[in-house]
Write a structure and sequence with these properties.
metal ion binding, 2,3-Dihydroxybiphenyl 1,2-Dioxygenase, domain 1, VOC_core, metal-binding, alpha+beta, 5 helices, VOC family protein, Glyas_Bleomycin-R_OHBP_Dase
Length: about 150
C-alpha cells in the first residue's frame, strides 16, 4: 500500500492580497517567489468552479524541505474564496506528492475521503483534493508532479 500523506510537497496559504503577502514574506527573508507553473492541459478536470479556478493567483517559493504557496482567490465562488471569507487568511491545504495518483485516490476512497476537486493530465500527473477540513483542520491533497 502506497502511503497517502507521507511526502509533503507544499503548504498553501490563502491570502487576501497576494502582492502584499509576497512583500511581507520577502521582508523576512522568504523567497524568491515565482508564478505557479501551469502544466499541460487536463484530460479530466472536475472542480467546483472552473472559472474561479482559472482566475486564482498563485506565487510559490521553493524552500529547503517543501514549497510554500500563496493563493489569492478571485471574488468568484470557490472553496478558497469561502475559506477566506469565513476564516480569514491562513493555511488552506497541505499537498502531498504521490507516485501513483490513481492508486492514491482509490486508497483515499477506501478510507471514506470524498473528492472535492481533481484533475488529470495524459501523463498521469495532476491533483486530487479531499474533503478533510472538518476532521483534519485543513484540506488534504495528493498530487503527482508533471515531468
Amino acid at each position: 500500500m502506497i502511503p497517502l500523506f507521507r511526502k509533503l510537497h507544499h503548504v498553501c496559504v490563502v491570502v487576501a492580497d497576494l502582492d502584499k503577502a509576497v512583500a511581507y514574506y520577502e521582508s523576512v527573508g522568504i523567497g524568491p517567489w515565482f508564478d505557479y507553473p501551469k502544466g499541460g492541459a487536463y484530460v479530466e478536470y472536475d472542480v467546483p468552479n472552473a472559472q474561479a479556478s482559472a482566475a486564482m493567483r498563485y506565487k510559490c517559493a521553493d524552500l529547503d524541505n517543501f514549497q510554500l504557496q500563496l493563493c489569492q482567490p478571485p471574488e468568484l465562488d470557490s472553496p478558497q474564496r469561502r475559506f477566506l471569507d469565513e476564516s480569514g487568511e491562513g493555511v488552506y491545504h497541505l499537498g502531498f506528492e504521490s507516485d501513483d495518483l490513481g492508486t492514491a485516490e482509490e486508497q483515499a476512497g477506501a478510507l471514506g475521503l470524498d473528492v472535492i476537486a481533481r484533475g488529470r493530465r495524459a501523463d498521469g500527473s495532476g491533483f486530487c483534493y479531499f474533503d478533510t477540513r472538518a476532521g483534519a483542520g485543513v484540506t488534504l491533497e495528493v498530487r503527482k508532479t508533471q515531468h
